[in-house]
Amino acid sequence: MSKYSDDPAWSDIVPLPQDDGGPNPLAAIAYKDEYSEAMSYLRAVMAENEMSERVLGLTEHIISMNPAHYTVWLYRAKCLFTLSSDLKAEIAWLNPTALKHLKNYQIWHHRQTIIEKLDSADGEVTFISSMLEADSKNYHVWSYRQWLVRRFDLWHEGELEAVEGMLKEDVRNNSAWNHRWFVVFGNEKMEGVDDGVLEREMDYAKAAIYMTPQNQSPWNYLRGLLRYAKLPASTLKEFALEFASPEKPDEVHSSHALDLLADIYAEEENKKEAEKALDLLAKRFDPIRANYWNYRKSLLELPAAAS
Amino acid sequence: MSLVSGPGRGGITDDRLPHELRLFVDKHVCYIQSLDTRKDELEYWLTEHLRLSGLYWGLTALHLLGRPDGLPRNEVLDFVMSCMHDNGGFGAAPGHDAHMLYTISAVQILATLDAFGELEERVGGGRQKIGQYIASLQDTTTGTFAGDEWGETDTRFLYGALNALSLLGLLDLVNINQAVEHIQECANFDGGYGTSPGAESHAGQIFTCVAALSIAGRLDLVDRDKLGGWLSERQLKNGGLNGRPEKKEDVCYSWWVASSLAMIGRLHWIDAEKLTKFILNCQDPELGGFADRPGNMVDVFHTVFGIAGLSLVKYAGLVEVDPVYCMPLAVTKRALGKLK
After folding, report:
1. Which of A7, A8, A65, A13 is closest to A36 using CA atoms?
2. Which of B92, B200, B235 minimises the CB distance to A139?
3. Which residues constitute the domain of residue A293?
4. Which of A133, B91, B137, B324 has the fewest CB atoms within 10 Å, measured from its CB?
5. How far does the CA of residue B5 sit from the closest CA of chain A (Å)?
6. B contacts of A29 (beta carbons < 8 Å)
7. Domain-by-domain residue ranges, chain B?
């Protein structure tokens, strides 16, 4: 019946039940009993700071029931390092565990600790890909991927290609767009990028916009490129006009194009057209943010509006 | 305070809505008060690793609802103190390791209860001890903060450190300039901030970065128009807010997005009326509590951030919330005022 109290391997341990100052109410459901028993053995071994194989088994059992319990993870890591356990085996166990608990967050720090110690990224990118297949915008997975790229200098090890594959799957995946920026511009050891790269990135974002004109991510990316290269907004005037014009309000294919055009006209000190674009946004294409667009309009009155 | 979800579901998904557009204060108070009585549910125990934060969420919600005495003060204080470790940090519950997140929750609860005096009575030099624990987690090469001795870093921890240290009056224990520099490194090409340099912009992380800059007195570093533009773009047609482009709306972003906008003076860039409707549609009018979106199970996390969001947009009858701390403004004024 009981996993631990009937097991001779645990007969030397006196379990420490939860002390919450009242009668223990954990009796109704068997699963609850299982969790509460395992926790009472964990409290007992932690009180003695026991580091052993059976403790690893116990933590694995608790994690399978409650992977968000951060103290269990930390104790497990301590135990693994004290026993000089096989860390590759740990990773092999972590893979299915992570896939089973997609939203779990503690597991990523544990993985990072283990990989740091292993000092090898072998197989990690493959594993990350399988995680992203299950949840393509998982913030923890993307953060972990960035850590891995930096830690093992993987900037040119297929990251760009991987991100392109993901954007091909879903061109609206903002996490993938962010990772693209990270791969292209994020290497602190790199001194700027050359014009060819800039042009390639412009073309890439534009191609995505042709596919999905109302997609925020590539527009943000394009604007980021302008800022990075310190180029005026008017660089994109012809491109933006393909999707919208204040003169043709019934043929607007992208509110983001109108937004950009408003900046371009402001830059050109063409207040009238800029106002038209912003009015269209405030009244017709994005009225929920009318105050924002009206604020942008008020900036046109300032002498520094064009800068 | 437990993190058990349910029992009710938020919202009414059919057309019965219009007459329901009000806040069911008494129901929410009862819901929060009932959370700690649900020890016969497995989820109560499976969420033990969050309990101290759960208590902060529940207590703050009650204060914002104008029911500061909704939980027994002494029992709350006893529980908080039972989570304190010798090193000055707090775990989520007795027997859980000390961690930055729960240490912040503990300090926020102590400040809300005006209990720093009692902290000193129970643990001599307690205030200083907590401050030292938090300060020990600053990474002196990058300026950011770790969550615990294992070194995971995140702008959440950085914000939490500045939040708690400012309430304790101990900001001088850490290198503020270096922390500020780190936040600037987390600024992204789209105007937002992420969890670390290069990480995707995320409304929750933007809140932590902007609030930390606010505590450091460095909001001048924020490009308010650009960030405000990105944040206001988070509002969807149904009035709710999402946390990143192309993601679903969620009540908790009513707080992360709106508080960030409030801190940079751009809250009026979103449609407050539509947001109010969205938040109110996420409450369970019968059993109390808020869900992430209509139709889902309620929980205390979404309850506090729903109520705090309503307070930000000045929903009638609610106590005013401080957008930097997610605590009643009167409380932070008192705590910070005492230090002057």
Report:
1. A65
2. B200
3. 234-307
4. A133
5. 15
6. 42
7. 1-46+223-325
Beta strands in chain B, from DSSP E residues, in sequence order: 290-291, 298-299, 321-322, 327-328
Q: Check CB contact of A182 with chain B, cutoff 8 Å.
A: yes
Which positions in chain A touch B202 (Cβ < 8 Å)? 139
> Nearest by CB to B45, which of A36, A143, A181?
A36
Q: What is the pLDDT of residues A108-138, one digit of tens each?
A: 999 999 999 999 999 999 999 999 999 999 9
DSSP annotation of A37 reads H
Contact of B105 with B90, CB cutoff 8 Å: yes
Q: What is the mean predicted confidence (pLDDT) over A285-296? A: 97
pLDDT at A26 exceeding the cut of 90? no
| Nearest residue on chain A to B147, alpha-carbon basis | A109
Q: Are A214 and A252 in contact (CB under 8 A)?
A: no
Q: Report, as an integer, the average pLDDT of A249-266.
A: 97
Q: Contacts from A89-92 at CB under 8 Å and sequence distance 24+? A: A90/A114, A91/A115, A91/A118, A91/A123
pTM (two decimals): 0.92
A25 in contact with B, Cβ within 8 Å: yes
Q: Give how far A11 is from chain B: nearest CA, Å.
A: 22
The type of residue at A72 is V
A38 within some domain: no
Which two tokens mark B37? 């009585």
List active site positions of A. 103
Q: Determine the average pLDDT of the residues in A252-277.
A: 97
At B250, the pLDDT band (50, 70, 90 cuts) reads very high
Q: Which residue has the higher pLDDT, B305 or B50?
A: B305
- Say if CB B103 and CB B65 are below 8 A apart: no
Q: What total of structural domains would you count in chain A?
A: 1
CATH number of B1-46+223-325: 1.50.10.20
Whether the pLDDT of residue A72 is over 70: the answer is yes
Instruction: Reply yes or no on whether the pLDDT at B36 is more than 70.
Output: yes
